[in-house]
Amino acid sequence: MTDYEKGGAQHIERTASEDSNDAHIAEFTPEEQKKIIHRIDRRLVTTLGVLYMCSLMDRTNLGAANIAGMAKGLNLIGERYSLIVLIFFIPYVLFQPPATVVLRKVGPRRFLSAITLLWGGCMIGFGFVKKWDQMLGLRVILGVLEAGFFPGCAYLLSTWYTRFELQKRNAVFYLIGSMASAIAGIMAYGIMQMDGLGGLSGWRWIFVVEGLITCVFAILGYFLIVDFPEKAASSWRFLTPRESAFIVARIEKDRHDAIPEPFNITSYLKNALDSKVWAFASLFGLTTTNTYAIAYFLPVILHEGMGFSIAKAQCLVAPPYVAAAIVMYGCAVLGDKYHIRGPIVAFNAVLGLIGLPLLGYAHNNAVRYFGVFLATIAGNANVPAVLTYQANNIRGQWKRALCSATLVGFGGIGGIVGSTVFRDQDAPKYGPGIMTVMIANGLILVITALLSVKFHLANKRVDRGGKPIEGQEGFHYTL
Question: Where are the residues of the annotated region Disordered (predicted)?
Fold first, then answer.
């Protein structure tokens, strides 16, 4: 270990052992503290957001490829397309709990960049399949490789920021990723023009080009992703030992869980006995039912359900995602400023309950397209809102790791539902799909209301001097 790394370790040990959080924080003026946080934002949030953009692009480009000729090229008759979409989520759900443990042990920089590079290579392979069942196999591999990415990013971000800084960072991370959904249709339409080049169809080039882009960003990610705060002083000298100790001290002062305890499988799984872990997971699964349904089937709905040409359908995907990004960030600013989480989740669900009937049951295409805006906003703005709602109300590094895994695992279940509810035989109104997603938004309201009551009563108990929340004196739930 170098003297530089030893210095960082000594600073961190003093932070934990001497309980000198205030002293470490006071080493920097408020202006210097802001500069350090902004440096972390630029390095960590931006890098993870760009890689997540690759993840979403690679996971959801089936819709664009399908209307670009894949359906004909692979003879996707009957339920074959829905099966290809669905099969991804089975390994995606199953491999998430162990993936977060591996991430903590191996380190985010190595783990996240490695799996991104591997799934980029897998995506290139999509462009060369000859039969539809070969694509099934590649989608399984893709699910295994992507399983650890989103929960890993959510977990890593939660270890760097205090509770009331987190939603803006989650929103920017997800906003950058959502750019994939906004530009993927336009990009896919441009790539389609390569049809015939090198003997490959246009839809095949979509997979090849986007897979190559992912591989390039994965290599860059290896040099840009930083490890956990307590190891930041040795991550390409991203922070000095004093700055690393400052970040750890801020987290310790906020929730007293900056440094993880040694891993124990029994203790790790025991966290699953907490009912709110599953309530948050359910909220996220219901949210992703909305987001995946829109992501996978919006091009199809616009083309086959609303009668737009392929070119218009690909391009009309973008505006609703731009609107969702604006609302998402606005909600994050309000949530962090006023320390509220549940009301924002409920507000977005109400938008979904307004927009989905317009999309499904209106007769005018302009009104239906307005419904697309509201439905897209509802699902996408709630992703960082639910992530932060969960992160604000749990403590402990291993519990945080398990919660990230269960949350995004249920998100995968939402993906399974969202990938199957819009069926060809239900065109052009897609009634069963619309109704399913409406029910999901209604359940979000119910669960959020129940959690709000539970948290309010627990906070009152603490104020009366009763049993502490999450085993920490003075800790309060964020409503």
Answer: 1-21
- The count of C-alpha atoms lying within 13 angstroms of the C-alpha of 460, restricted to the half-sphere facing its C-beta, is 6
In the numeric block, which tokens belong to residue 434? 């619309």
Tens of pLDDT, residue by residue over 114-153, are 999 999 999 999 999 999 999 999 999 999 999 999 889 9
Mean pLDDT is lowest, of 11-25, 262-276, 297-311, 432-446, for: 11-25
Based on the number of CB atoms within 10 Å of its own CB, is 157 exposed (0-12), middle (13-18) or buried (19 or more)? buried
Q: Tell me the pLDDT tens digit for each residue of 92-112.
A: 888 988 888 899 889 999 999
What is the model's pTM? Answer: 0.82
Average pLDDT over residues 13-34: 75
Q: What is the dihedral of CA 382, 384, 389, 390, to 10 degrees?
A: 110
Whether 441 and 381 have beta carbons less than 8 Å apart is answered as no
Of 349, 201, 192, 355, nearest in space to 283 by CA: 349
In the structure, what pLDDT confidence band is assigned to residue 423 with cuts at 50, 70 and 90? Answer: confident
The encoded tokens of residue 28 equal 């920097």
pLDDT tens track for 217-250 = 999 999 999 888 887 766 566 888 899 889 989 9
Structure tokens at 188: 């896919």
Complete domains list, the chain, with CATH: 27-225+271-460 (1.20.1250.20)
**Average pLDDT score over residue span 412-426:** 81
Question: What whole-number distance in Å separates Cα of residue 417 and Cα of residue 52?
Answer: 22
